Amino acid sequence: HEAAAVNEIKRHKRFTVVIGNPPYAAISSNLTPQLRRIVEPYRYVDGQKIRERSMLQFEKNIQDDYVKFFALSQARVQESGVGICALITNHSYLDGPTLRGLRWNLLDQFPKSWFFDLHGNSNKGEESPEGKSNENVFDIKQGVGIAVMLKADKVSESFVGLGESWGTRIEKYEQLARQTIL
Q: Which of 89, 74, 72, 91 has the alpha carbon at shortest distance from 23?
């Protein structure tokens, strides 16, 4: 009964809050035509189509499941016209050149946004600026980022907050416990 009720809500109600920790799957198994199209807006920056030297890498990056989850979450909030989207994801969209269309689109659609890079990417061999230990907050190799994005009817002014954390897992947990976005 619960599953049927949830499915009914997903089909007929508009979301105002989307919270998630989607999978980070560089080689997505979600490649239906509909899911491939959902990231179409992220192929553009200010109306200009992105052209990359390595379009194969661009396509792989834009089809990552967490990028699709950003698109799905954004679409749900856009349908309602107001809402908040908070995601814990792969952090590569924060500075990856191939995902600049994702960044541009999120900032264009969410007038108030906070992004926090927890680093910890052992795949890239990330080291803290001070040369200290830099651990991941999860037991994974891919670095982690947090995005909190707000869409409201009347926003007096746009705001983008950026932050980052380096150090041990415990240090990052302690810093996160002290953080606020208000």
A: 89
Nearest to 41 by CA among 86, 83, 103: 103
What gap in Å lies between CA 59 and CA 62, rounded to an integer? Answer: 5
Predicted structure pTM score: 0.87
Residue tagged 């379009």 (tokens): 55
Q: What is the per-residue pLDDT across 89-125, written as a single tens digit (0 to 9) for each?
A: 999 999 988 999 999 999 999 999 999 999 999 988 8
- Alpha carbon distance 164, 54 (integer Å): 29
Distance of CA 89 to the CA centre of its chain: 6
Q: What angle do CA 116, 121, 123 make, to 5 degrees?
A: 150
